[in-house]
Amino acid sequence: MSPWVPLEANPELFSEWCAELGLDQAKYSFHDVFGLDEELLAMVPAPVEAVLFLFPLTPTTEAERTEEPVSSEEGLLWLKQTIENACGTIGLLHAVANSRVRAALPADSALATLFDEAESLAPEQRTRLISENEALQKTHANLAAQGQSVAPEADEDVNLHFVVFVRTPSGALVELDGRRSGPIVRARHVPKDGLLKATAQFVQSHYMARNPNAVQFNLIALGPAV
């Protein structure tokens, strides 16, 4: 399938993406995370349900991607990315599907329908749900053209990638990345309201510290609307 135009890391666009596919913006929306120190993390509306993380692809991150083991965590819906530059949409799907936000979706919404169908399929069979979903493709295309910056061409080489962090009911911090082969557990015992702090600590020690010359990092949290 042809590449998609990448989505801009923009909380307003992410909130609109969800709204177009069925989520009530009066209940949940996305928020910028302006820094990793505790004072700035405390500014983010709580409770945080999921965290999207944008980072530059480097030789270090790419080498780790092929080496790290994945986990078979129960209750997670994982979607493989097969469309180039679709990591923003895959990340948004992972964020909503694997958090309490999913329960707020109308049963007949585009997102709820997609998630229900995906759960009945094996992971390798779920890719067609995205590539053949007209509502998803239309929403992605519309919002990719509405960012504050000039959108790159669909076939342009983009070295930035989105992943998502969620907390499972058992308290595990899990990273969901459509370019890998499944979920990755990053921590086992995260407090009930500790998702954002745990994500910030992991991102700082795992991604930023290992790529000290990279600057294109961005965190966006999914939480209650304000």
Automatic annotation (TrEMBL):
Alphabetized PANTHER family for the sequence: UBIQUITIN CARBOXYL-TERMINAL HYDROLASE
**What is the superkingdom listed in this entry's lineage?**
Eukaryota
Q: Name one GO cellular component term.
A: cytoplasm
Q: Which organism is it from?
A: Malassezia nana
**Marked site: Important for enzyme activity:** D177
Q: Which GO terms describe its molecular function?
A: cysteine-type deubiquitinase activity
Give the enzyme class. Answer: hydrolase
Give one Pfam family. Answer: Peptidase_C12
What's this protein's name?
A: Ubiquitin carboxyl-terminal hydrolase
State the family named in the UniProt similarity comment for this chain: Belongs to the peptidase C12 family.
Looking at the UniProt record, the site noted as Transition state stabilizer sits at: Q81
